[in-house]
Amino acid sequence: MTEPIVVRLCTADDLASLGRREPHPNARYAQGHYERQLEGDYYFAVALRDGIELGTSVLDCRGDNLLQPELKSLWVYPESRRQGAARALTRFLEQQAVELGFDEIFLRVDPQNAAAIPMYISLDYTPTGDHRLTTYEYVDGLGNTHSREEMDAIYRKSLRLLH
């Protein structure tokens, strides 16, 4: 029998193994998410099965965020896809939002992301019709930070039935 997926907030003990899964040693994405979590109103979740990381995601509730709360940075490792990790991460972070008193949750997604959009729709997210230019920062293999812009579609989900 397959072990269930467990989702919890990331701890400092997770950072080394999460860091090894990043595109290169200089990326430090997990470290950045964890540091923002320590500052507050930012929840960095990890999905595990039998102690092995399957993926991560974030709930951003910070006051400077235009969409609040926002589900973001959902990433499931390629070998772990189509096993329920994205759904488990999303549900866990939605419950966090409910416990924080939010009635709705938002996310941004590239309109060309043919894999993500059906999954979000299956989780009751609906397109708002709005789009927002999003700047993404990434670190190359040499440790240099770059940015790229993308016009993302905004999706929303009511959390009222989860209360």
Labels describing this entry:
single chain, alpha+beta, 163 residues
Characterize this entry briefly:
This protein has 4 helices and 7 strands; from the N terminus they run βααβββαβαββ. It is an alpha+beta fold and 163 residues long.
Write down the secondary-structure element order.
EHHEEEHEHEE
Largest sheet: 7 strands, mixed
Number of strands: 7
Beta-strand content estimate: 35-45%
Level of helix content?
A: 10-25%
Our count of helices gives: 4
Provide mean pLDDT, rounded: 90
Ends distance: 32 Å
Radius of gyration: 16 Å
Unreliably modeled segments: none
Form type: globular
What structural class do you assign from the helix and strand content? alpha+beta
Strands of the widest sheet, in order across it, are: 1-2-3-4-5-7-6
Topology readout:
Blueprint: E1 5-9, H1 15-20, H2 29-39, E2 42-49, E3 52-60, E4 70-76, H3 85-99, E5 104-109, H4 116-122, E6 126-139, E7 145-158
Parallel strand pairs: 4-5
Antiparallel strand pairs: 1-2, 2-3, 3-4, 5-7, 6-7
